[in-house]
Amino acid sequence: MVRPRVFYANPQTAPSNAFQADTLAGGPALLAQALAEFDAAAEALRAAGVEVLVMDAAGGQDLPDALFPNNWLSTHADATVVLYPMLAANRRAERNALMLERLQAEFGFKVARTLDLSPLEDQGLIVEGTGSLVLDRRRRVAYACLSARSHPEAITHACEALGYQARMFSASDPRGQPVYHTNVMLAVGSQVAIACLDSLPDRAERDGLQHALEAGGAVVVGIDHGQMAALCANVLELAGADGPMLAVSTRAWRAFSTAQRRLLERHLQPVPVNIDTIEHHAGGGIRCMLAELHLPRG
Fold it and tell me: pTM for the full model?
């Protein structure tokens, strides 16, 4: 997790992110609220038995979305680190070599290969990490809804380099605007998938996505557009002290129906965290705040 030094609604991401507030209000009070939510979320995950490494965002730069590291970084069990091309110019400086050095020198993670896809930005080809790519790491399938932040050529490039099968589709909100990141309409865990199938206007693509998720052995929890807006799919399964757990915001957890919550609780221990300020102003949730560490140690 990356602790921000500044926080406000990023005007450069607003055109493609219908989930974020249109206000540019910022300042010390808003930052203090975001930091309080950030710190409480990190502690809640630690209390559930998750190892959480917190690093500070780079100093001297205005990085309003630095608390969302999953968009520029992914790590893999074969000791690969991937750096991704970003759409917003003021997000590109979030890519931080010092953080990668610290993962190795201070925390003992091994990096054997760094796959730097950021030069794709020069061609206008964007794929924003595990925001764009929802990875089924067991079956090596990458689900991706197309948008300004998820270009098909960039998705193909990333998947070929990582040895994943790309499954691309189109998804939109009720106004017809493309869903900006796949991870706000889809989450794939070891036993459960949460999907806003209603966001896929093409029936064949919708049925194909559901079939693919079920074929992978997942119980599919279908959510509607309103629940997607509450970031019910912007969640992440993590390894907790007592087994698999679900990092989820309190707003998202409240938006699930009673039946959906009971179904999720059969497979996962929910850990709700209050990040209302972060969700409202930045348009991303708890999943966006977590860059999973799959690297080997030693």
Answer: 0.96
User: What confidence tens digit (pLDDT) does each residue in 185-242 have?
Assistant: 999 999 999 999 999 999 999 999 999 999 988 999 999 999 999 999 999 999 998 8
Rounded to the nearest 5°, which phi and psi values hold at 114?
-115, 115
Q: Which of 87, 96, 82 is nearest to 4 (CA)?
A: 96
Q: From CA 8, how far away is CA 109, in angstroms rounded? A: 32
* 114 in Cβ contact with 95 (< 8 Å): no
Domains of the chain by start residue, with CATH: 2-282 (3.75.10.10)
Per-residue model confidence as pLDDT tens digits over 119-176: 999 999 999 999 999 999 999 999 999 999 999 999 999 999 999 999 999 999 999 9
Greatest distance between any 2 Cα atoms in the chain: 49
Q: How many residues does the chain have?
A: 298
**CB-CB neighbours of 234 under 10 Å:** 28
| 203 contacts: CB under 8 Å, gap ≥ 6 | none
